[in-house]
Structures
1.
Amino acid sequence: MQNSFLVEDQKANEMDLGKFHHRKSPLQYENRKIGFAEMLRLPEKKKRKRLVAKRGIENIPILLEDIALFYTENKIVYAIDHTGKKNIVERNLSELVCELDDNIFFRVNRQYVININHVKSFKVYEKIKLKIDLKMEELNAAHIIIISQETAPSFKKWIHET
């Protein structure tokens, strides 16, 4: 009795497998490859042009192109604009990076996101890391921005391609 059930199950499985093998995979059709790629592609989120930051009790709209860098200190995120003014941003760096244009902004480490238009130069630091010098000298004195060995290649690629 048990053997007949096993034989029937085996025959049913073989038939199912036979049907499966005779079907052509959708990936074999060129037009369907495009369809799957389109299905997998996430809708592109619109990148911000400005940000509302706080300075004291004021809410100030700032154009992102005017921001030299974002940094975090004591769990507070600050944006420093091209004049050197410090503003509080009510987002964490991870959320902020998702909204920024990655052709202009680069997250160099856990603490800093920099604007390519405010980078003066970069140089080798401790043989394997990079050190960023910004165009505003007062920022260089207050913020030593170091890029790790792991992030340095992607930073070099980003800065050369944008």
2.
Amino acid sequence: MTPDERRLRALDSEDHDPRPARAAHDALETGLFEIKRSLPALERGEEPERAFLGVRSETAPEGGALVIAVVPAAPAARAGLRRGDRIVEAADQPVRDPDDVSALVNARRPGDEVRVVVERDGERRTLTVTLGDQPEQANNP
């Protein structure tokens, strides 16, 4: 059996965890989307618009994106997101991890409104965020 055949067999096994491959695929797809969206502005010599939410998050143990910091006065802060919120849905799509939140923001423009569902203190809350302009250097919370 060749190394390629062994790899394919491992990929087909029930023990295979598809999450890393899916994450790589999603990242590539998001990057390609961003390039396609930005290309017209770049061809005109302009800076492409980039939306900004203003949170830093990590993968929550139970899934979703756990907000570990919020940039003061950023769109997320104005909408009411707080440190400790777990983002479970955004723009009517489930959120599995912080990459999903990044993809959501990258697929939109400043000024777009996005519904974000968070779990806070055991309750689900729906917040509406109006995305802002990506600052040249975002303040890392």
